[in-house]
Amino acid sequence: MRKIGILLLVLFCGCSPLKFYKTEGLTYQGANIFYKGELCARVTAVEIANDNNKIVQEVTYIIENPKYNHLAKPIIAYVSKLRPSWEVEVELKYYDGIYK
Question: Which helix (H) or strand (E) holds 13?
Answer without folding.
Answer: helix 2-13
